């Protein structure tokens, strides 16, 4: 570097310092910001055919969810809907409820959860009862 102009050396060192600072800042960003609750497993599964008339519902998410601030709604093929009671959480990433007295037909569970990062995630699980 003896033969390089001083301005050029200062510019290289400045850019290298900036890249190191950005890399360190990115490593220190809290992982919680990436913790949106994504549905990773459910029973019934999407488009499943279930024996009725009673069905245990379980939804497992990719992160912790607030059961008290989450909702589930059962919709029927004729457009009727009813809120479902979410049971006390046995695991911080899982919600459960019970469906009873279902007749054969098409149904859908519409859910909304609040993740620990404060973001709301919504989804729908269509299924059939035989």
The total of beta strands comes to: 8
Mean pLDDT across every amino acid position: 87
N-to-C series of helices and strands: HEEEEEEEE
Taken from the alpha-carbon principal axes, the silhouette is: rod-shaped
- What structural class do the secondary elements suggest? alpha+beta
β-sheet strand percentage: 35-45%
Helical content class: 10-25%
Radius of gyration: 25 Å
How is the main sheet built?
5 strands, mixed
Q: Largest beta sheet: what is the strand line-up?
A: 2-8-7-4-5
Low-confidence segments, ≥5 residues, pLDDT <50?
Answer: none
Q: Please identify the oligomeric state.
A: single chain
Helix tally equals 1
Distance between the termini: 78 Å
Would you give an account of this structure?
This protein is α+β, with helices and mostly antiparallel strands and 130 residues long. The chain is 18% helix and 39% strand. It has one helix and eight strands; from the N terminus they run H-E-E-E-E-E-E-E-E. It has one helix spanning 6-28; strands at 39-43, 48-50, 55-61, 71-76, 81-84, 94-99, 105-114, 120-129. The strands form two sheets. A five-stranded mixed sheet has the order 2-8-7-4-5, with no helix packed on it.
């Amino acid at each position: 570097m003896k033969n390089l102009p001083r301005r050029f050396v200062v510019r290289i060192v400045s850019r290298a310092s900036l890249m190191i600072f950005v890399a360190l800042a990115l490593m220190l960003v809290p992982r919680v910001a990436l913790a949106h609750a994504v549905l990773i497993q459910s029973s019934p599964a999407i488009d499943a055919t279930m024996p009725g008339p009673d069905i245990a519902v379980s939804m497992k998410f990719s992160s912790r969810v607030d059961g008290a601030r989450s909702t589930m709604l059962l919709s029927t093929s004729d457009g009727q809907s009813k809120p479902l009671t979410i049971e006390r959480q046995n695991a911080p990433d899982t919600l459960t409820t019970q469906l009873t007295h279902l007749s054969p037909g098409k149904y859908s569970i519409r859910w909304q959860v609040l993740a620990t990062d404060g973001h709301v995630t919504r989804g729908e699980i269509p299924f059939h009862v035989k």
